[in-house]
Amino acid sequence: MSVQRTIHVGGEWRGAASGATREILDPADAKPFAVIAEGGAEDADAAIAAARRAFDEGPWPRTPVAERAALLRRVADLLVRDREKIGLLESRDAGKTVEEGRVDVDCVADAFRYFADLAIGEGAGRVVDAGSEEIHSVVVHEPVGVCSMITPWNYPLLQASWKIAPALAAGNTFVIKPSEITPLTTVVLVELLVEAGLPAGVANIVTGPGASVGARLADHPDVDLISFTGGLLSGTKVALAAAADVKKVALELGGKNPNVVFADACETEDGFDTAVDQALNAAFIHSGQVCSAGSRLIIEESVRERFVAELARRAGKIRLGRGTEDGVECGPLVSEQQRDKTESYVASALAEGAVLRSGGKRPEPSAVRPADGYFYEPTVLDQCHREMRVVREETFGPILTVETFRTEDEAVALANDTEYGLAGGVWTADAGRARRVAGRLRHGTVWINDFHPYLPQAEWGGFGKSGVGRELGPAGLAEYREAKHVYQNLAPKPVRWFAG
User: Fold this and answer.
1) pTM for the full model?
2) CA 370 centroid distance within chain
3) φ, ψ for residue 400 (rounded to 5)?
4) Do 39 and 129 touch, CB atoms closer than 8 A?
5) Where is the Aldehyde dehydrogenase domain (predicted)?
6) CB-CB contact of 37 with 104 (8 Å)
7) Residue 463 contacts by C-beta under 8 Å, 6 or more apart in sequence?
């Protein structure tokens, strides 16, 4: 198997300076299907130097915003052209179904188009009334500079686009480090940027581990901004490393997301069916490996037993298998480590008194489910409480915990009883209650009678330990720009402050 040159620096594809490589495993069967360059701090230094030169001396930051937007739209068109190929690669790399991979490609194309339009719409600056016709005052926005980007393994292509598209729209240069276990579609995205005509040095990628490449991207003095999506522990290290140079920092650090179901949402058969279906979707899409997964079902006590029984029955029927196989609804976990972590959470929950209603084990191998794959059954744990580790911590696996409430106040208290605050859902037929509860939840996104959809036009990010800053929406573009006030006196005259 030949080694892919997956490090792109200053317009050149290359191997690692050390010559190191890494095998990329298909999580469905634990077999390698690609070998890539394993970069290190030396490669990161070279990439940052290239991005610095491209920003300080190159054309991109000074390219008219309309031309930058046109390039972003070309990238979107190339994504559409290669949708099937990229969707399949995302499936093999991250373990998700091919259809999920295709949807990710569609969402990435939408993000590039959105930020292209937004940059043009906000490109003229804001005139400030100084109260005098002799003063011309305007606030303009300029690119931050060199951006370091570190992305996670669960949505490698999507998370890369949420950073790259606004950064380029604003006129920045960047170095991106994808997760070392799911880097391949990010490499393809950089290839498409080059094909679309992006000048050399603007887009750089270094594939390699966080301990060397990620750490250098965070603490390098020539980096102006670092955007990180990943776990809380790693995000804290990134923030500390960036603090020495007072870099701009944007962190998206996950969540422990409540899905609150009131009894009135289940009064009709259609309502009950929809709420159960959406609870499954909230918890088990991509095997629960989603930062916004609705992994905490908080349900009104009067409907708990019926709801959980049906939920567990349907969870047991989810078709697990290789994401490229027809009829498969859920793929494997991304790695052996992630499956071991899932097993540990289930074991601790049962030891602390949780009741297993479905799943809780590795499935039997089958024609679509190789024995060596990292599969784990969708698991429903009933009678959980806030002191349990599985309820407090982000599991990032196919685990749904069930808690109950009796009053609206109790439901809100349970939903907010987390150090995170990324997202949450509320299910009710009472419009007034929906608005009240949504208003009281301390989470960056709140869905009412839905779960998981997002819009590129709307900001994404969380409260508390879910991070700082926002991606998507106008605020997502603002992360990559600096505001500058330009004050021009059209009729200067002496001030006479000093007698002279």
Assistant:
1) 0.96
2) 29
3) -120, 120
4) no
5) 13-486
6) no
7) 420, 421, 422, 442, 443, 444
How far apart CA 350 and CA 167 sit, in angstroms, is: 45
- Beta-carbon contacts of 473 under 8 Å, excluding residues fewer than 6 positions away, are 456, 457, 458, 459, 460
d(CA 480, CA 60) in angstroms, rounded, equals: 14
User: What is the CA 436 to chain-centroid distance, rounded?
Assistant: 28
Detail the DSSP E strand segments found in 417-490.
423-427, 445-448, 467-468, 481-489
Single out the residue of 347, 356, 451 nearest to residue 390, CA to CA. Answer: 347
Element (H, E) at 177: strand 173-177
DSSP-based three-state secondary structure for 34:
strand
Q: Which strand (E) or helix (H) includes residue 408?
A: helix 408-416
User: Helix, strand or coil for residue 464?
Assistant: helix
Assigned token pair, 119:
């940059």
The catalytically annotated residue of 38, 100, 180, 252 is 252
In the block, tokens 């069916």 appear at 273
Nearest one of 281, 279, 149, 258 to 207, comparing CA atoms: 149
Residues forming a β-bridge with 481: 143
Q: Catalytic: 252? A: yes
